[in-house]
Amino acid sequence: MELGRYLCEVRAGQYWRVEKLASFDDFLERRFPESRRKAYYLMPIHEHLPPQARRELREVGWTKGLELAKVAKRDRQHFDCATWLHKAGELPKERFKQEVERELTGKETEPSEIVYFKLYKSQIPVVEQAIETAALMLGTDKSRGYCLEMICADFLAGASLESGNSEVLLQSALRFFKFLPGEERRSFLDYVAGKAS
Q: How far apart are CA 28 and CA 45, in angstroms?
């Protein structure tokens, strides 16, 4: 919490200029080269959580504190601190994150997981271009994970045609269908019904 407060002061007072740096981001890069993202996470916790929530942050941890800050930012003076702190203390981290997401969006979210894999530097431009192209085709509001999933589903659909494995093709088609907007779903079903008859 103290680090979050100090970082907010440095940013607000532009104290990074004392070190002759061009920006606050440069300050973070110099001071927190391995954990700049965490530094950015700590600031909204300080900015948006009320004092009583900040006092109990040790009990729930900073990652849940970041989720609490999202609700507190939205609700401002109407933030139900006691209820949310209780939920943060009772629920596991991922379940609490889902609870906050549901509160903010009104939708139930699917559990997620971060997947890591190694790419050679020569492979990165190809992967980036594929994801960017998929984003242009699917809509730039889609996440990179969603775009990668659609690229993989397309690959599996093509591979299953060559191997004769219709089960993989069916699963890929169902996955694509799930993400179609309502009007396109109806058009697709009308087209399939027309072909079937």
A: 17
- Does the pLDDT value for residue 160 go beyond 70? no
Query: Where exactly are the structural domains of the chain?
Result: 2-105, 124-196
* Other CB atoms within 10 A of residue 182 CB: 7
> Residues 24, 11: contact at Cβ < 8 Å?
yes
Element of type H or E holding 167: helix 166-178
The residue whose two tokens read 């920006």 is 23
Among 79, 83, 42, smallest CA distance to 91 is for 83
| Position 125, amino acid | P
Structure-token match 């001071």, residue found = 31
| Segment 45-73, tens digit of pLDDT | 888 888 888 888 888 888 898 899 999 99
Tell me 15's DSSP state: G
Whole-number Cα distances in Å, 51 to 57, 82, 148:
10, 12, 41
H helix intervals, the chain: 2-13, 24-31, 36-48, 51-55, 57-60, 62-75, 81-90, 93-105, 124-138, 144-163, 166-178, 182-196
